[in-house]
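Budget justification, computational time. The allocation requested in the original proposal was used primarily to generate structure tokens for proteins on the priority list. As evidence of use, we reproduce two of the resulting records. The first is shown immediately below.
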Amino acid sequence: MQWDGTHESACQIVTWVQSYGLLSTAHYETMEHGAVVVRTLEGDMRANPCDWIIRGVAGEFYPCRDDIFAATYGVVP
């Protein structure tokens, strides 16, 4: 899922990630500009607007910059 920077989009991402169980966590911080924070295998990572939140082959989630996503991945319908 791509985060468009809005609160609504952040809520959809958080719900999606959390639907995979207790080890898959994300939350939305309402700070000056807001941030989607995803718990990854390497620790908590912040997603910027336009970043993609990716679910890996082992069920892990992590943010990915839009330019890296476009060069590496495709959207699953």
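The second record produced under the same allocation is shown here.
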Amino acid sequence: MKVYQAISAVMADLAVDGIGKDRKNQQQNYNFRGIDDVYNALSSVLAKHQLLMLPRVLSREVVERTTQKGGVLFYVTVEAEFDLVHAEDGSTHTIKTYGEAMDMADKATNKAMSAAYKYAAMQAFCIPTEGDNDADAMTHSVQPAKQEAKKPTLADRANLLEDALRNAPITDLEKAWAKGSALCAELDLSMPERLDELTKLYEALRDPVPF
């Protein structure tokens, strides 16, 4: 299987010069290797050793976020596979990885695919990655996600109905009971004893025993 010989040969060639961190993130002041640097370093070496690196996106997830300034930010995650195929004998090795990226326009998916390719190549061919953190030279400030309010349980809703009955004036008692009709139907299926308690409470408040 010549694919592994080719992978080893590509690793050996890249080990001579590697890929320098010649680009700079201006916002957080660190150097990184861009996807163009990876393409430029790999293209001739892969061709030299008759090795193909063929991408395949398995899934894509998009989440819309809000920046701290109120703008829209698209956060994309792609799950991708890359087939390393030797052109002579067709032997294959497959790499699976993920790519993540953010963008305020239509580039988030492209950036995520580039990130997946770059890190798949770095890991497959043992290209040093210390301190490398680009997608690509932009840093986004994301507004923290709002926590969803806890959905009240059936028991919580039953307690609210009880409070409504106890606090309702006698003239509004029937209206309060009618508003809880849907809840009563749910209690009849899941908590019949609690429904019985509420029914007795309603009847006692509606027809109080005279002293």
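A brief technical remark on that second record: The longest helix spans residues 108-124.
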